[in-house]
Amino acid sequence: MVKVKQTACSIIRKSLIYKTGVEYGDYTMNHIQGCSHGCKYPCYAFLMAKRFGKVDSYEEWIEPTIVENTLDLLTEEIPKFKDKISTLHMCFTTDPFMYGYSDIKELTLSALKLLNNNDIKCSILTKGLLPKELITLSPDNEYGITLVSLNEEYRKTNEPGAAPYKERLASLKYLHDHGLRTWVSIEPYPTPNIIDQDLRSILEAVSFTDKIIFGRTNYSKVISAYKDNKSFYNEQANIVIGFCKEKGIDYHIKHRTITSYPDQTVKKAEMVTLDENAQSIQHLCKNDNHFAKVFSMIGSMTYQPHGDAYDFLIHEIIEQMISQKAGDKIYNKLVSLCGGKLTVNSINSVSDNEVHSIGTSNSKIQYIRNLTAAIESGNLDFDALQNMPDSEVMKKLTSLRGIGNWTAKMYLIFVLDRQDILPFEDSAFLHSYQWLYNTNDTSPTKVKENCQKWHPYASIAARYLYHALDFGLTKEKIEFFK
Rounded CA gap, 326 and 151, in Å? Predict the structure, then answer.
């Protein structure tokens, strides 16, 4: 029996609805602060809340606080956003149906009713229980649960406050049986050094659902310590894809879950850690107090340069002139079409019509063919690029049709790990730049002038701005920096 709980206090917020880039919806809202589920993957929503000073400790985070003016804010903001929203997701940094909290449940239901009454479709993702009352709301809504295991001991250790897996599944099945669209997020999926389990048993347990999302665990030293983690996630992703195709279930493999197996274009890259002792961080913090504030929010960062040059360039070609979300979708379909890995041979084995059928434009297909031909002919040698200065790498890459300055700079930063590249052509970078400096002037001249103080570590600063965008920090007002 579920023990009924109540939140101890509430807060007031100035705004609620904001735009987001998650695949579940184009807008989101967080009408609770904190989360009683206490996930220990770790929980990045908690880490960001702590860095922003919204909570001081994990113990405070797991005592949720409701936004008491939620319905008033929605009434005020719905007219402003109504025509812009395709799907509003609940929630980005918390859980709308926290296990056992009746007041959170009632507030979420009231918010859903208000949104649905204004013809706004909503999506829900929870580790709690989906209430039966949801069957009375809009049939356009979509309801999901997170399920990364069926082992209750694993749940008690890693999701100590979340609903038991069987109860979670039963609540989702009830909605599905009543004709509502349901989905399951199998993310962050653990590696065998954390728990040895059969993914197929989880897939069978959720085989009734309409869609399955699968993703790896990121930013975890324990995951990185598992020697074959990339091959493992490749294999598991292909199991998901095969299962979903067999059962007729929609699926989505999260970005960077699938990576190519080693071939002639893949080089093993070492992990890089940036912390307060790194020379680059000390230089940037000393010379730019704006960057210092971003570093205080994000803290240390560990990254690994992309090891597969061919895969990376194909992904960047696909993502040109479209959103990251749309690009990732096409890229993942191409990886699946090529048997789980992008190599010269696998690309040559698929026809232009097949590549076009997954959403790739004819011009981008030709760019991919040009890239492939350059590798086969020896005109493009990835080993040689390693030893070229930045300007020569730019010149060599941009000589290929379909690769411009933006793609070449992304290659320099994320594959070759060059330290002083300023990607002022990139809209994502400029978005974070505007937020950081509270400016609308993103002219190349001004950006280069303002970022000169980053030299010779412009790439490191750029990585932190990309990270700020990925973590949703740029959605908060600049007052946080004052």
Answer: 34
Residue 112 belongs to domain spanning:
10-179
Specify the range with the lowest mean pLDDT, choosing from 188-202, 225-239, 464-478: 464-478
What DSSP line would sit under 337-380, residue for residue? HTTT---HHHHHTS-HHHHHHTT--HHHHHHHHHHHHHHHHTSS
Q: Where are the alpha helices (DSSP H) in 306-457?
A: 309-319, 324-337, 344-348, 352-357, 362-377, 382-386, 390-398, 405-414, 427-437, 444-450
**Of the residues 179, 207, 226, the one at which a domain ends:** 179
CB within 8 Å of 215: residues ≥ 6 apart = 185, 186, 187, 188, 189, 253, 254, 257
Residue 206 counted as domain residue: yes
Task: Say how far apart CA 200 and CA 150 lie, in whole Å.
Answer: 11
* Cα 272 to Cα 124: distance, rounded to the nearest angstrom: 36
- Which phi and psi (to 5°) does residue 324 adopt? -60, -40
Whether 439 is covered by a domain: the verdict is: yes
Report the alpha-carbon distance of residue 327 to residue 321 in Å, rounded: 9
Distance CA 138, CA 454 (A): 51
213 in a domain, yes or no?
yes
Q: Is 480 within a domain?
A: no
CA distance 152 to 85: 37
Percent of the chain with pLDDT over 70: 94
- Whole-model pTM: value is 0.60
| 82/103 same-domain check | yes
Give the CATH number for residue 471.
1.10.340.30
Q: Which of 301, 368, 374, 378 is nearest to 334 (CA)?
A: 368
Beta bridge partners of 181: 142
**Residue 180 contacts residue 145 (beta carbons within 8 Å):** no
Is the torsion defined by CA of 462, 466, 471, 473 positive or negative? positive
End-to-end CA distance of the chain: 47
What average pLDDT does this structure show over 368-393?
A: 90
| DSSP state letter for 331 | H
